[in-house]
Amino acid sequence: MKIKEQLQSLRAELPRQVRLVAVSKTKPNADLERAYEAGQRIFGENKIQEMTRKWETLPKDIQWHMIGHVQTNKVKYMAPYVSLIHGVDRYKLLKEINKQGAKNNRIINCLLQMHIAQEETKFGFNQRELEEVVNNLKINPLPNIKIKGLMGMATFTENKNQIRKEFKTLKQNFDWIQTQLTEVTELSMGMSGDYSIAIKEGSTMIRVGSKIFGHRN
Ligand SMILES: *Cc1c(COP(=O)(O)O)cnc(C)c1O
Q1: Which of 97, 125, 156, 207 has a CA-to-CA distance to 8 between 20 and 30 Å?
Q2: Domain at 3-213: CATH architecture
Q3: Domain locations in the chain as residue ranges
Q4: DSSP state letters, 123-160
């Protein structure tokens, strides 16, 4: 199926409260343009340089979401335009985003990433670290960032029960953080292989790449 058809059939499946981030990492501008023509306005990238190149050359009403691991020294390159940073996994990074937000006279939307998978390689806070960050933010608010919610990635497995369990854990933490901070509305969970489970477990934002654009090399 073509990009446009894939997008349309995927959108038809989504409940109204779920937003779709089209994950376009590694894909050429031409592919993003097809999705744009089909009405897609939110794109997710995992490399700041690549995202910035695309931002410079594609229509300005696109909302760019950073979904990858962020190096502190690269925040400055996306601070002028990024719409949402999904992968905030340390307090130091939050402070840098706040600093760059101030320089650009913006409030930058962020999600805190939680580690819910079994793989050691996936980034994110555990529950205790999440509580610590939230406490830090209450004592010492950072005026140029806004915590919009949580993001997480489930284990890469065929075991649906495992995936469901991990998404439930994330949702519980999301319910908790909503009681702690104002303006928390987004739960970013679900990818091509597991978005149906994620939506059943309360996702408000899915990040789908290969199902729309085809496999990456
Ligand atoms: C690549 C990526 C996705 C999309 O993965 P697909 O399986 O292609 O849908 C989603 N989230 C993150 C964090 C990613 O890095």
Answers
A1: 156
A2: Alpha-Beta Barrel (3.20)
A3: 3-213
A4: --B-HHHHHHHHHHHHHS--TTEEEEEEEE---SSS-H
